[in-house]
Each structure stands twice: as C-alpha cells, then as structure tokens.
Design goal:
The protein is an alpha/beta fold. About 40% of the residues lie in helices and about 20% in strands. The radius of gyration is 20 Å and the shape is elongated.
Length: about 220
Amino acid sequence: MYRILIVEDDEIIARSLKKHLESWDYDVVCVEDFSDIMKEFAGAAPQLVLMDIKLPFYNGYHWCSRIREMSKVPVIFVSSASDNMNIVMAVNMGGDDFIAKPFDLDVLTAKIQALLRRTYDFAGQNTVLEHRGALLNLGDATLTCGETRVDLTKNELKILQVLMENKEKIVSRDTLMTKLWESDSFVDENTLSVNVGRLRKKLDAAGLPDFILTKKGIGYHIG
C-alpha cells in the first residue's frame, strides 16, 4: 500500500482528499503541524506528497525544496494559484506535476496512479527516518539536522539505520555487527567501537550530542 502525505491547511479539502484516496486503498496522512512539515514528512515516510502552495509559516515551494534536499519522492502541487508563473515555479522547485483547484477527484487519482507507477516500477523507495529533528536519508547516506548535512560511510549509515528503526529499544552489539557485515562470522568488536566513535564525533559536530548512548555490557540505543 502506498502512503500519501497531504500538505493542505484547508481542513475540508484535506478531509475530502483523505476520504477519497482511502477509498482507493491508499494510506493517507494529513499534515497537522505546519511549522515543521519536514518532521511530519519523515514520520510519515510517504511515497507521494500532495502539496498546496499557500500554507501557514512557509509556502509549499519552501517545503518542496527542503524535501528535494533529501528525497526524490514525487510531489504534486495542488493549488488555486494556477497562473503560468506559479506552474513554472512549482516545476523549478522540484514538483513533478501541478493540478489547479478546483479539480476533479478522478483526474487527480489518475495522475497519482500514473506518477506512482513511473516512480516505483523502475526505482526503489527512498526512505527517510527521523529522530530529535535529525533526518536520516537511506537513499543517499546523509543525515540532515537543520541546515547541517552530514555524509555517512556505509557502516555509519547501517549503524544509524538499525538504531533509529529500533529507537525504543537497546540494540545489542552482536545485532549491530551482524547488520554491518551481513554475516554471523566472528568480527573484532573493536571495529564496531571505532565506527560508533567516529559516528558520534560527526553527530556532535552536527549539533546532536548524546544521540547514541551506550548501555554498558549490552549495546547501544538512541537518546
């Protein structure tokens, strides 16, 4: 089931879209906090975004450009501001399509279906994980916190992925080593400690102190 994130501050329109798309078996999430749409984007991990242009705090162009910094997820602008300048701006800011309000729900659905087919029939999904405002992009091995973007090694990415996917739990050192090397063969534990140490330094520099915590004798967990 594909998940669609609706970024629309008109509650009537948002509810109408949600109800209609759910009837097509889509998993639909509506943004509630318009001051931090990236946090909601990361939490929903959608396969497609429906984006209005006129929004509280920052407009849809701003949020589309922020999404494009870390994800190739398709974005369809849905707006009554449908003059040529806004359509061109939407495309230039990374939008994949533009639908003018008022619109026909069946036409919108057809466009969504076509865009999802083009995107995911030929490419894997690009997942983003979030914790404490930090966004981990599994597609390009980067961590973004505010305006800071950190490039990660393959091992650092795997460590963060496992910890963030299990952020309510303590992850054992054995589990991490198995994930790192995709093998049950013996690996020197010191190598894991070195990788975690280097990763912590990058996190500290990005303004994320104590992001990875140690549970002595057991493993690590996200703080």
